[in-house]
Amino acid sequence: MPGHLSPGHHDPMGDDPSVYRIRVGGCLGPTFLEAFPALTAHQDGDETVLTGALPDSSALYGVLAEIEALGLDLLEVHKARP
Amino acid sequence: MLIDRHDLVALLDRATGKRVTVVSAPAGSGKTSLLRAWAGRPGQDRAIAFVTVPPDQHDAQMFWLAVLAAVREALSEGHGKGRGEGLSAGLGAGLDADPPPAAPGSGGSVLVDAVLSELRAGGRRFVLVIDDLHELNSAEAVDGLRSLLSRLPPDAHVVVAGRRDPPLRLHRTRLDGELAEIRLAQLRFTEAESRELVAAAGLSLPDRVVAVLHERTEGWAAGLRLAVLSLAGHPDPERFAAEFSGSDRTVAEYLLAEMLERQPPGVQRLLLRTSLMDRVNGELADLLTGATGSERILLELEDSAAFVVSLDPERTLFRYHRLFGDLLRLELRRTQPGEIPALHRIAARWSAAHARPADAVRHLQAAGDWPDAARLLCDRALGLTLDGRAGTVTALLRAFPPGADEESPELALVNTIAELNESRPVEAAAHLEVGRSLAAARPPEHRNRLALTIASLDLLLARMRGDLDGIREQVGALPPVLSVPSNADVALGSDLRALALLNLGVAEAWSLRPDDGERHLTEGAALARDIGRPYLEVACLAHRGFTALSRSPALARRRCEEAIALASRHGWDAEPVIAPALATLAATFVWTGEPGPAREWLDRAGRVVSPGSEPGVRLLFHLVTGMFHAARGDHGRALEEYGSAASVQEVMAGEHALANLVTGLTAAAHVRLGRTDRARAMLDALDDERAGTPEIRNARALVRLADHAPEAARRELEPVLDGTAPSRLRLTSVEAHLLDALACEALGHHHTARKAVETALDLAEPDRLILPFTLTGARRLLEAIPLHETAHATLIADILDIPRAVPAAGSPEPGPGLSPSELRVLRFLPTNLTRLEIAGELSVSLNTVNTHIRRIYAKLGATDRSAAVRRGRELRLLSAGRS
């Protein structure tokens, strides 16, 4: 199933690789960024934006679990259409 | 460094007037500290059980056993006793202490019921605290918790704490005003509390410094504690505060770096290198750091900080605060990534050597040593499953990379074990075949070990399919398992050997080779006891009663009672593992004509026998239920049960020991209902081998008697009576003599009849086998016997004392004993609703519906939904008017 859906097609199972942009509060240093090896970070004021392609929604929830575990302030999750 | 947070403590106190408190806030908000301080206050008038869910808990049963242990512990304490001790004991139950062994593969709903009955029986105000609920990764356990909350007795209160709102569907509780909530906003430290925290740590800081700390951390507990650690002995707190305030780093990351920097190198090394462990002791810490004296450092850390907690009263085992451990792990990954696999390997070796196989597999997986991880999991999967940790096995299986199980015979075998545990023999067989073919390609040193596991699983699978001949064949191929294995295979070998003995003994028992069965089951039980596998011991003993049934029902009864007592000590007396003993025990009471206890044990057996139970047990259960009804004269109900027993036999690959008895009794029931033709037809259709068995001969004799052909009846019985076709069942022999007596009576040979009755009495006396007298109608012959002419006056008196069987028609139908909630579920079965939808309609959990349906099937003797509906309709249970 992966890869056969046209762009913009609704993907109920969330098993499409997608680019995500995740915004958290605070400036993440090198230690915290170890928690997000699949994502690149850039600082935006006193917030950090993590961007990268995640293979499916399970991977996204993995990232969100890390954010929860570290007690970070989750501000925004954005899924960019491929 | 626990400070008294009066407002929150008062809030928690007030909340106990409601049903549930939810403490929901992010990592490091001070949830656990608050709850421990609250629960640990001395002199409280309520019992408090404190359970902490261990990281990534997948096993519903392990969770419920920990809850049950903590509840029992809390209730067993006197009112006057200080809370402190009980609290640490409760924490121990959740965190580390080995929980009591669990019965593998059965639902946790029994345990939920056990918790509830403890709470009801406790008779005092009770609070159950469940901390770190977000770590509970078992849908079944969450279902159970929902069910617990909905059925909580009025003087009990539950506090659940975790990082996110629990999936407990509490909106109704909230609307009812029965829910109290404590969230991040309340948990944030006030400035005054921050000052208290600093003072409690023995620091004296200017108020303006504390104000900066409070503002920068926004009252976040973990931040404040890290700051306090960094400030201990700091030369210039003002500068620290200014730099902290000026940094744009997150609080946790900034303070972790500060705190680590202030530690001596040895401590830093220990903190980082032990951070991969859920728990650590001095010995393991020494191995991981390559240094000595780790235990002293751990003790000092616990004394000086809030982030290291000892788990036992002796203070030998420690864990980090979760968030702190996570931070340290990230720092380790950043600074020494190359070291991590080696550390995991050390941890794996240590865990494997210290009876923590699941941890060992997890560390091997983390090290990327997939083949080693698969081998270890394969060796330990059976043991873990028998310990009630099937959920852990499944979780470990899922952690392998996708496709790994297509190449690994070990993982195929683990899958087999997982499927067998779920009673899915077809899937299990498929995995086993994959494992077998992949194993053939392995080098010999691995192959032998795999062969051992494969052989043992073949045996278990054959048993689950009722393939009794298959089992005996498999055992022929088993010498390596049954001979004492060498070196490292000993532990694995003992598990497999005990399991093989169980399977073999069960096969022999069901195929009526009672002596062999008894020998193997006794041996299996002893071995299981030696290797600390109480579940296997109970399983062996539960079947052992049946092996005695043919010879001596009295002995069978004693054996069953012993097995049930042992099961009860482990809390398994309502688990499927004990079903054979329950059904066998019921049989002995049916046979001795004691309907009260027979009904009670049948009810208990009915609650644990399900369509997924092994065929031998199901057949026995239906047969005994049928005999129970026949003894009451309800031959219609008896026929239905015999029919269920016969349909179990049809799906069995081998012939059940009692198959002929089922057929014989079915024919007899037809005769009693006046359908002699049906009985004759079914008996005539049997092949010669079965036709010659004593049970079938007895049935044919009964047909001849009904045909008024007593001479013919006597001819049928002759081989049974003269020993050319002897019965292995004492019951059948007694019956044969009684039928002969009836035939003689009909022929006018009163003296011979009298002698036959006396022989039947001789045989029946030792075990008081009363049932044949009731079933054959021979009791009327007893009435004529002058008591001074018999050696069995007491037995005769007892038989005559039993009220005459009531005829089925017109008698009040007692019904199958469905509870009101089971009736409610039953009435949804004729609809198209799925089980999940029924659960929604009734506002109960899916798990509850499943449990009810299982019991409905058992009580109605149904194997599927349509059969249950049919039976419910016959009994007129489907209209809401009745009941």
Structure commentary:
Chain B: Keywords: DNA-binding, Transcription, Transcription regulation. Chain B: This is LuxR family transcriptional regulator. Chain B: InterPro entries: AAA_16, P-loop_NTPase, Sig_transdc_resp-reg_C-effctor, TPR-like_helical_dom_sf, Tscrpt_reg_LuxR_C, WH-like_DNA-bd_sf, WHD_MalT. Chain B: GO terms for molecular function: DNA binding. Chain B: It comes from Actinomadura harenae. With 82 residues, chain A is α+β, with helices and mostly antiparallel strands. Chain A has one domain (18-80): Alpha-Beta Plaits. In chain A, 21% of the residues lie in helices and 34% in strands. Chain A is built from 2 helices and 4 strands. Chain A has helices at 30-33, 57-69, and strands at 18-25, 40-44, 47-54, 74-80. In chain A, strands 2-3-1-4 form a 4-stranded antiparallel β-sheet, covered by helices on one side. In chain A, a hairpin with a 2-residue loop joins strand 2 and strand 3. Residues 1-10 of chain A have low confidence and may be disordered. With 883 residues, chain B is mostly helical. Among the domains of chain B are: 6-187, Rossmann fold, CATH 3.40.50.300; 191-262; 666-804, Alpha Horseshoe (Serine Threonine Protein Phosphatase 5, Tetratricopeptide repeat); 820-874, Arc Repressor Mutant, subunit A, CATH 1.10.10.10. Chain B has 48 helices and 8 strands. In chain B, a hairpin with a 6-residue loop joins strand 7 (308-310) and strand 8. In chain B, helix 32 crosses helix 47 (846-860) and helix 38 (694-706) packs parallel to helix 40 (730-747). The two termini of chain B are 60 Å apart. Residues 79-100, 479-488 and 805-814 of chain B have low confidence and may be disordered. At the A-B interface, helix 1 of A face helix 13 and helix 17 of B.
